[in-house]
Amino acid sequence: MSSPLKILGFAILLSGSLVVSANPAPQQKLALADCIRIALEKHQSLNVSEASVAMAEAQYQQAMSAYWPRIAAEVNASRADQDRTFKMQGQFDLPPALGGAVASLAQGQGLPPAQVQAIQQGLAQPVPINMDIKLFDRDMVTSSLNLTYPIFTGMKREAIVGQAEKGVKIAEEGRRKTNLEIVRDVKKYYYAAQFAIQMEQLADDTLERFKALEDLTERLYQHGSMRVKKTDYLRTKTTTAITRTMRSEAQYARELAHEALGNAMGQEWDASYSLAEAVDASPLSGELKQLVDSAHTFNPDIQQLKLAVQISDDQITEARSGYYPMIGFQAEVHDIQTDYKSGLTNAVNRDGWTIGIGMQWNLFDGFQTTGKVNQAKAQQRKLESQQVLLDQGIALQVKQQFLSIKSASTQTKDSQEAVGYASENRKLHVRAYQDELVETKDVIEAQIVETFAQGTHYRSRYALEMGLLSLEYLLGSNVGELNQTR
User: Fold this and answer.
1) Cα 244 from chain centre
2) d(CA 312, CA 385)
3) Residue-wise pLDDT tens for the chain (486 aa)?
4) Can you spell out the DSSP letters for 134-189?
5) Which CATH class is domain 26-68+153-325+366-484?
6) Sign for the pseudo-dihedral over CA of 37, 42, 43, 46
7) Dist CA 184 CA 474 (whole Å)
8) Greatest CA span in the chain, whole angstroms?
9) Integer Cα distance of 377 and 390 in angstroms
């Protein structure tokens, strides 16, 4: 490295030390586990899924209320415009035996036969009646306590409770899916940030090597080397300038990936932190069939659809309840407060209780129940077909990720070997160039090949990490945990 570059490097180190001394608080360095923990604590989508679970549990409580009796208290105070009366109007006939008894009594009193006969004829005529009878007072206060309890609902109650119970499980699977999505996003942006950091560091290293090559070419050219011409010197300066541009792009990509990771963690836009060096991804050891079986067992989308198929069974049972009668028990205790002591509000009727059993059975409803049953069965067939399609689709995606991981794993190993060869090749070319044994373009080519090999290695590692996290999301479980259960 030339003396100006040494001075520049010393200045950068000095400025960095001044910044640290001015701001003594250490910057937070986060590993992948820390990023996931922060995201699971702060991400707002978790509140949405928690609210969904709470709503499902509340609906389950509502459904379970059908197993309890309903007790209701009711108090009514009323004032009518006038007293409530019953009008009795018409006529009635006296029984013939009454006329004979009166005649016998009259004869015993010594009345003349003509009068006795007149009395008998009068009693034989209809007696007219026209009167108003007061039933209720205009002011009345009634209170009652009612109890109702369904005895038999045609399995409708059990079906509704079953649907609500499975609804809670669906909400819980939705919450688990949200957690998986958050972990997937954090891992995706974390690995992207790590990849961007590696590419930026690679660009820095490449730029430093090209600067050193540029200085070496300049010295050789100025000292009258027969193998180094001005075109070689210009070629090295052009390559250095292009590499500087690539480094700026890598720096921008690193900053953008860093902000994307902070957003995925739910961090504030001005939060300051750095990332710890990532651990190399573990190779995939599971077999394809085991991975597909695991996805069918743990994938939240598949589990939710399975629960939806089970709910359709309860919906069919609920629809069939229309074929059966509804039987219920009812009891009531009542009390009437009024100043009127006669009529229907006499001492006997002022308070009391009733108890009974009722039944309602729709003998014919215009085939409405049949239509509901057919609709529920069709819905079940639809969900079952969707479940088959989803199982096949998830299996295909698992297979795709499985092949992608295998390919990326092989590329990682091969590219790591290529990096070693390219590094050794570059070092040999630099030493040979110092002794003027190779052309400038050969040294530049060796530098570019090493950078390309290192970049290919980073890309293959990143592809491997992306494949693993995508596979974990499809499986609904960690691949490492799956390997431990084998």
Assistant:
1) 47
2) 13
3) 333 333 233 333 323 333 333 344 456 789 998 999 999 988 888 888 999 999 999 999 999 999 999 999 999 999 988 888 888 787 777 777 666 777 777 667 767 777 767 777 777 777 788 888 888 888 889 999 999 999 999 999 999 999 999 999 999 999 999 999 999 999 999 999 999 999 999 999 999 999 998 898 888 878 777 677 888 888 888 999 999 999 999 999 999 999 999 888 888 878 888 888 878 777 777 789 999 999 999 999 999 999 999 999 999 999 999 999 999 999 999 999 988 888 888 888 888 999 999 999 999 989 999 999 999 999 999 999 999 999 999 999 999 999 999 999 999 999 999 999 999 999 999 899 888 888 888 999 999 999 999 999 999 999 999 999 999 999 987 665 554 444
4) EEE-SEEEEEEEEEEEEEE-TTHHHHHHHHHHHHHHHHHHHHHHHHHHHHHHHHHH
5) mainly alpha
6) positive
7) 10
8) 177
9) 20
The two structure tokens encoding residue 390: 């989803």
Kindly state the helix (H) or strand (E) to which residue 72 belongs, with its residue range.
strand 70-79
Instruction: Give me 178's structure tokens.
Output: 């949200």
Q: Give me 409's structure tokens.
A: 């794993």
Say how far apart CA 471 and CA 405 lie, in whole Å: 9
Listing DSSP states for 276-313 in one string gives PPPPPPPPP-S-HHHHHHHHHHH-HHHHHHHHHHHHHH
Burial class (CB in 10 A: 0-12, 13-18, 19+), 344: middle
Residue that the structure tokens 């490097």 belong to: 9
Domain residue spans in the chain?
26-68+153-325+366-484, 73-78+93-101+122-152+336-360
Q: Look-up: residue for tokens 């108003």?
A: 132
